[in-house]
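Model: You mentioned two targets. I'll fold them one after the other.
Researcher: Yes, keep them separate.
Model: Target one:
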Amino acid sequence: MMKFQGSHILSVSQFDRDAIAKILDVSAQMAPYAARQKRCTVLEGAILSNLFFEPSTRTRVSFGTAFNLLGGFVRETVGQENSSLSKGESLFDTAQVISGYSDVIAMRHPQMHSVEQFAKGSTVPVINGGDGANEHPTQALLDLFTIQSEMMHYQKGLDNLDIVLMGDLKHGRTVHSLSKLLSLYNNVKVTMVSPEALRMPDSVISTLENAGHQVIVTDSMAGNLSCDVIYQTRIQQERFASKDEADLYRGHFSLNKSVYQQYCRENTVIMHPLPRDSRPEANELDIDLNDLDSLAIFRQAQNGVLVRMALFALTLGVEDQLTQYEKDVNWHTNKR
């Protein structure tokens, strides 16, 4: 079993099936706290430094919320221009200083492998919140937790999964990390729907194929969306050289209710890492899908809090102490 306590969480490559099962199990234990049925103060007095050097809303707030729900304090730096990195300080030096103020650090940075570089200078655990187009391990874990949760309604699991990955698969770090995790399971069919120019990197395809899984690469939605799960992604404009280049591909793989009813199974689960681009020229997930029970994108986002709570508990070694620090919720809430 992987040693979590005191460890950095940098890549999904760190995990085997046993480690993932542990993370998903602890994540499920966090549900009463996220639903405000109980509150937990197991990390009272601990400090998270939330360092987001690239724009983020959901991931940044999710990390902070997760830490707060366990009783900890959050300190934030948003934007590289607001940090000493803009003055020429190295990632190593920044890590040495900030880790002295913190018990754990969550970090997002636009450059690939930058979080790993930062972690070498940190004296406390560092959790990768996304490093360029490379990886997004916590997103992949929450995606896996969501798939597992959604499939339970149909007496299915993560083995024998039939999943479609669609959109910008070249730049979408979420699908890179998710594919690597899926490779650990059995008999997975992965259909990759994208323009040729935005196809999944060969290294990710090879990881799945070498694990014995069926991989279909196509540029057509017709006949390829009948599956357990569709994981839609947006065009990652920030990874292109210009907006004009991104616009060449925007809106080519839009999923709406008409397409869903024509090509998908009755209960095909729809996922998306968010934000979805709802502008008319993009509209990768139409709002006419909002009334479908199978649209899991908001449940998926909420699951991010559970998984990040679990990672904080595991890296700080308190996962077995949760119930000892439970308290009643004494304020009004509609979450229960």
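Model: Target two:
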Amino acid sequence: MLDPTDRALLAALQNDAHSSAGQLSDMLHLSASQISRRRQRLETEGFIQGYSARVDATRMGLSVQGFVQVHLATHGPDNSNSFARMVDLRPEITSAWTMTGDADYLLRVYCADLAALNTLIHDVLLPHPAVARVQSQIVMDQLKRDGPLPTG
């Protein structure tokens, strides 16, 4: 179980994972050793799954962000596994979810330009034997960046 201090620690780490134990102890009014022990426990118990840097897609030359809904032709473990392997190998597909509703999968993609998105859709996704059709939406503007999970 998480107590309020664990939740506050998780919120602080989501805000800035580089915060030192000293900085966190000042924020949460605990000793640095208590912070370190709590952080270690949260890591060991899987509440904290890792640390990463947010990289600016535009500065990396990835000017097109899109969401692609994928509808499978037939459902079964072989098609699903084959599709999942393909998704895992494509760096431009940054997230993938199985969905309820009309589409079977929702993919988040980042591409250099519209031509690259077109290539991904027409040369990679549609030719895959598991795929019946795709629908894509291009992001015009992102109103809210992926934020931290609620901890309260």
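Researcher: Noted. Anything on target two?
Model: The two ends are 13 Å apart (CA to CA).
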